[in-house]
Amino acid sequence: MKYDPASEIQDHQVFGEFGGVNPSITDSSTFTFMKPDTMKELFENEIEGCFLYSRHWNPSNKYLSEALAKLEDTESAQVTSSGISAIACTILQICKSGDEIISSRTIYGGTWALFKNILPKFGINVKFVDINNLSRVKSLINKNTKLIFCETISNPLLDVSDLPKLSMIAKSDNLKLVVDNTFSPMVISPYKLGADVVIHSLTKYINGASDCVAGCICASNEFINELTDINHGMTMLLGPVLDSFRSSSILKNLNTLHIRMKQHSMNAKYLAEKIDKMGYNVFYPGLKKHPQYNLITSFKNDGFGYSGMLGIDVGTLDQGEKILESMQKEKIGYLAVSLGYYKTLFSLPGSSTSSEIPEDEQNKMGLSKGIIRFSVGLDNDIGRTFNRIKKCLKNLK
């Protein structure tokens, strides 16, 4: 039987200090000690139920972290102030100057820029590769390689990474497999498939309201303890702490994630199939013609579909811009970046969320300037939405 993350979240119970059905919010940066010895001990070892300073841990962030660990079936988790801070802290915890990373070429533009422009300043080299070319991935491993990085479902081309095989490659050379699962919470459980670290931008599907920025790192107790170590931990010393009120808000929204993912996925699949029949090149892993359809079907969790992300190629940048403007006028959704919102969001990633990637690299990825990325919303009548999209596409012709 496949892992059921929705049941894990449902069974995770945290009460408020006075019995509230929502846990109390800790509105404190620092915490009181009754005895000096306890403070001294906490600087040396973590004490359950005892907190030092909110940059390290506080109860609100602890509650959310515990729930996220349940979501991904990891031993532990750490919340951060953004998805990109979660990636940066993870990489810097694992790698030092002289180390190398093998990364998927097709990743979020901000991650690509971090890997290409920032990590080399710290002596960390990144080799970009078609992550589904497993023989090429193997050939790039050397004594300096420390980790393999990929996205479960890639941004923005929606390629699916073969996580079980990548895990086998990583483990055979004692490497870490780090996976960004932002596009597919509940749909896919990378840790169950062999990933060592699972990262999310909580900003997106998990929170679901486009009203905050946050991230998380899900991994073993050992790795999370390394991240929070007061002398060497990257989340402790780089300071990407998440505000307690935001942690509390995200924790409440997490309880509806299973319902939202089902609707996002159902709507995206409907649009993908309808637009595909119109003759457009459609990118969606739930289409049987998608190159990794059988792969994702073999390891996805039952009941949550294939995610709510969708891409269509309309040819040129000029055509794409006209369609985006038309769709916003038709009230299909918003011309905006990000994803996971209850309304549909659409953009041209080649000139927005992937604009950090140079044009020659975009060409290697297969990222056309005319590709529109949809984060399909929770529309009640998706047929009505499709008719409006069809009108916009036909008006262009």
Quick gist of this model?
The chain has 397 residues and is α/β, with parallel strands linked by helices.
Number of helices: 15
Gyration radius (Cα, Å) is: 21 Å
State the helical fraction. Answer: 25-40%
Structural class: alpha/beta
Question: For the record, what is the CATH homologous superfamily label of the largest domain?
Answer: Type I PLP-dependent aspartate aminotransferase-like (Major domain)
Strands, count: 12
The coarse overall form would be globular
Secondary-structure element string: HHHEHEHEHEHEEEHHHHEHEHEEHEH
CATH architecture of the largest domain: 3-Layer(aba) Sandwich
Number of domains: 2
Enter the CATH topology name of the largest domain. Answer: Aspartate Aminotransferase, domain 2
**In order across it, which strands form the biggest sheet?**
1-7-6-5-4-2-3
